[in-house]
Amino acid sequence: MRQWVVLGWFLVVSITSANARDLGSIKCFGGGDGPNPLMDLTHLQDLGVTGFETQGEIQEFVLWESKGSVVYRNSEGKIYQLALNGGKNTLLAKSRWPISRVKEDTNTFLALRDRAVTLDTGFSPPRWQTWAYKNGLRHLYWHRFLGTESLFSVASSFVRPHQQRIEVYSFSRKGVKPHICNLFSNQGEFFHLGEGHQYPHVFLYKVKKEGDSTRLSYYNIQIEGEIAKLPVCRLYQAGQYSTLIPGNVREVYSFPDLMTTNTNLFVVRTDHPERNLLWDDGIYGCRYYHLENREPIVLNPKHAMIAVWSDSEGLSIIYTRKFEKGEPIVIRPLRDLIEGPIKKEHLALSNNGKELFVLARPRGSQTGTKRQLMRVTLP
Predict the structure, then answer these.
(1) Each residue's pLDDT tens digit, 262-282
(2) Tens-digit pLDDT profile for residues 38-87
(3) Integer CA distances (angstroms), 317 to 85, 331, 338, 379, in order
(4) Which of 17, 32, 64, 366 has the fewest beta carbons under 10 Å from its own?
(5) Residue 18: predicted pLDDT
(6) 7/264 Cα distance (integer angstroms)
(7) Chain-wide mean pLDDT for the chain?
(8) pLDDT category of residue 366 using cuts at 50, 70 and 90
């Protein structure tokens, strides 16, 4: 076991290479070679649809459930808060940069995507906070850290040939320098940032080509606390598949809210011509699906559901833990009612899994018609 501790005015880092006995060997069982079918039960569902009037065309939005509202930015860069009960639109601020989907429980702070900029709506009028740090950040989550609500973000870069630097930032309030963990990979190692993070972890994965398949390993950066008011981070391997993944791995999603000590829950997207989506569920085993070139969208990490869009089938919602005749079910809300493409920034699912918000153009509308925000009541 190797361990380094680097001390500085702004970082404390611990990188650990774990022993083999500390690692989980992830075995895929069940599901066969795939791909597996999906049972379409749309015709059995009664799906209610509600539309909302907004100020201008929405570019992106975030669902603020604790305040019963949606916050969106329109094509003019104006940020509004829309009350879902009553439909009132309240102007909050302006920004030419997109807003981030990352939110905290009180729904008070808003972040700009990929930038060290936040908006505190607890003031009237709301106040911007800006840190003079690099752009290209990936925001992960909000968490109360060192006594204040903090936005955790990550950045990756190469500091020299074949060595990667991963920086974990914690932005709190104006005038306070971000706390940073600085981690360096071994020569020749490269980590990919996955989707689906939960404090105190940053979810990473690493791939190794073996013929036409891929060896896939999972890692976590763990934010362990502080020493002398500086953050302490540790990088460790969380598991490795004992079987190879067919094709090249394109992206990995985790569901930390639904994972327990011995239960995995991952979605792996690959470029395999048939088995291009692996659903790895520690309860029901591994299943492969054929999504062609469609990109899976995780609607809410609290629910084992994904969405996909295609011009031929429209928007499909796949319930991976609800079965009909032994296979997961799919419903296609708004069938023949909306036009695509639909991407992840166009969808949001409530925490109870019953309300789906969709930003889309009505089918058959004239060219240039703005996207409309709709709420679909799910079964």
Answers:
(1) 677 899 999 999 999 999 987
(2) 666 655 456 788 999 999 999 999 999 999 999 999 999 999 999 999 99
(3) 25, 5, 15, 11
(4) 366
(5) 36
(6) 35
(7) 84
(8) low
Beta-bridge partners for 214: 209, 245
Q: For tokens 């991976």, name the residue.
A: 320
Residue among 94, 123, 88 at smallest CA distance from 109: 123
DSSP string, 119-163: EETTSSS-EEEE----S--EEEEEEEETTEEEEEEEEEEEEETTE
DSSP state of 313: T
Task: Give me 52's structure tokens.
Answer: 């909302």
Are 68 and 83 spatial neighbours (Cβ–Cβ below 8 Å)? yes
Reduced to 3 states (helix: H, G, I; strand: E, B; else coil), residue 346 is helix
In a 13 Å sphere around the CA of 340, the CA atoms on its Cβ side amount to: 16
What is the set of domains in the chain, with CATH numbers? Answer: 3-377 (2.130.10)
Tallying the residues shown for the chain, one arrives at 379
Provide the H-helix boundaries in 77-126: none
What does DSSP assign to residue 112?
B
Question: What is the per-residue DSSP string for 258-276?
Answer: G-BTTB-EEEEEE--SS--
DSSP 117: E
C-alpha dist (Å) from residue 196 to 1, 12, 200, 234, 256? 28, 25, 12, 18, 7
Instruction: For residue 36, give the amino acid letter.
Output: N
Structure confidence at residue 297 as a pLDDT band (50, 70, 90): very high
Q: What is the DSSP letter of 4?
A: E
Tens digit of each residue's pLDDT (9 = 90 or more) over 131-148: 877 778 999 999 988 778
Quote the pLDDT of residue 342.
93
b/e for 188-216, b at 16 or more Cβ within 10 A?
Answer: eeebebbbbbbbbbbbbbbbeeeeebbbb
Judge whether residue 284 has pLDDT over 90. Answer: no
User: For residues 365 and 359, what is the distance between their CA atoms, to the nearest angstrom?
Assistant: 14
- Determine the Cα–Cα distance for residues 52 and 375; give it in Å rounded to an integer: 8
